What we know:
Blueprint: H1 12-24, E1 48-53, E2 58-62, E3 68-69, H2 75-86, H3 88-94, H4 122-129, H5 137-152, H6 160-169, H7 171-183, H8 190-201, E4 204-205, H9 207-218, H10 236-246, H11 252-258, E5 263-266, E6 270-275, E7 279-284, H12 295-308, E8 323-328, E9 336-337, H13 340-349, E10 353-359, H14 364-379, E11 383-390, H15 396-407, E12 415-419, H16 428-436, E13 445-446, H17 449-463, H18 486-495, E14 497-501, E15 506-508, E16 516-522, E17 525-529, E18 539-544, E19 549-550, E20 564-567, E21 571-577, H19 578-587, H20 589-617
Helix pairs in contact: 2-3, 2-10, 4-7, 4-8, 5-8, 6-8, 7-8, 14-15, 15-16, 19-20
Amino acid sequence: MIESISASSDGPVADYLSDLHFRVSRLSGGNVATYIPELAKADPNLCGIAIATTDGKIYAVGDAEHEFTIQSVSKPFVYGYALGRYGRETVLQRVGVEPTGEAFNSIVLDDKHNRPFNPMVNAGAIAVAETIRGKTDDERVANMLDLFSRLAGRRLDIDEAVFRSERDTGHRNRAIAYMMLNTGMIRRPPDEILDIYFRQCAVRVTAIDLAVMGATLANKGVNPLTGERALPEEFIPDILTVMNSCGMYNYAGQWSYEVGIPAKSGVAGSIMAAIPGQIGIAVFSPPIDEHGNSVRGVAACREIASAFGLHVFKTTVATGTVIRRELDGAAVRSKRLRSPVERAILDQHGASNRIIEVQGPLYFGSAERLIRRARELASEGAQVVLDLRRVPAIDDTAAKLLARLAAGDETEASAILFAYLPREGPLARLREELESAESDTSAAIFATRDEALEWCENRLIEREGRSPDLTRFSLSEIAIFKNLAPAYLKLLEGAARPLMFEAGATIIREGDAARIFFALARGTVAVQLPGTSEGGRPIRVAMMGPGLTFGEMALFDGGKRSADVVALERVVCYGFAIETLKEISRDHPEILTTIYANVVRDFSERLRRANDEIRALEY
């Protein structure tokens, strides 16, 4: 059995299909086909919907695993087989590609070319069935079943009861076959060709099978589950074009205009559709309308096409490149510098912070793939940051699906965050969806990836029982004074000047003389280069909180400040005058020696961390 994502699974796509199934399964109208007696036994209440992606994921709801016979949905696939075996020109001599205003089982040929109008009507399908290879009936049946099994990704068989019912009552198809024998459109005995045609229509499938078969067409003829080529890539456009113009019988023109998806219906109540580069769709529900199309199937496909923007003339392809790369928090950290204890926590748990760099436009196909990967990581307890700075456009469908992702029920440890999501521009639609969601998802929006990553790190640190913003540090807890004896710490406490700065205050200014260094006791500061970015905004180089020091290069050279340090909130820190510290160290040289060793050790660790991050960011 093919593994699928059922309606009971969470996730935006499965949730949508579950809601859709609830609505369309309650529609009335239409009748079960009766001209084939065995089909008249179908339960009119059955309704299943399935979607298969071009990389092999399946979403299924309702009666998607209920078996029924494929009927006319078989026609595009046998047509593709014929094209692959004989080529376009040869097949065109026998079967045209023009829509017909006649019923699908009309006993009529194209007067000008004396051939069936197209391979989607019975006359054309019977002519195409003659091309199935084999010297005997058994060989032809085996080759036909091999074709459909490759398309579905599992072994299929024939419903013998339906086959006998079609054979015993298929007098109109016999009339069509004898007419084509008379005009030279078929060459073998009609009963021999009709035997394989009736068996072809009686192949047993499920909605999941048809969705996979549609996804195989969408995937250029390669089955997305098995990786096996089922039909030649060269002829996939031919198949899809004829499906689009002729696949829905006399409703084909209106279908193409309103729905815009290449599709084929069958009188057992199924519709199979293919969206190139994205997905295959299948709906099964036995009641059919006057055209022979499933009433609920038409309604479901119309809504899916509208909701997901799948009209072929509005569809963008190439979903596989939506994820540029993935990074984890063990290799890439935020610009916030951390205390040794915090660094140890992030060394141990930082890999659970994941960054997905997204690229290209977001629409249903690409958003679905991105959502699936994000949910996969979140289900493992990851905090996932979606870096959207390389996304040039997003449609309404993708915005709604991503907003559902953010509002989803994730685990306590996980989170889905969005970075680079301005209020104006191409991604403003997604921000609006997040801010207007029923559950509060606006907190998931961050101006930059670094801010989102810092939030994830703080959450990890808090989870380990240590606040990243403790109210006050003693000197013994500050890394630069590590391993100093209590007596030396007491001397330093006497030399420290308690200082307070309000949010926005510049504590250190680039170019000033470096005569003092600072140890943070409370609050957060940013190290930044003033006016060097686009638009004259400062570039933030690092952030740091309690327990860390800044300006310590003054201990080594006493030169000029190389950057600004600005308070991001109310800050309390200790100031140490370099001259005072050197005077104390004349009598106690161990103090300065230990401080130097701690500074060098910290710089060395930062350098190693920077090297690791550079390696992680390399292509």
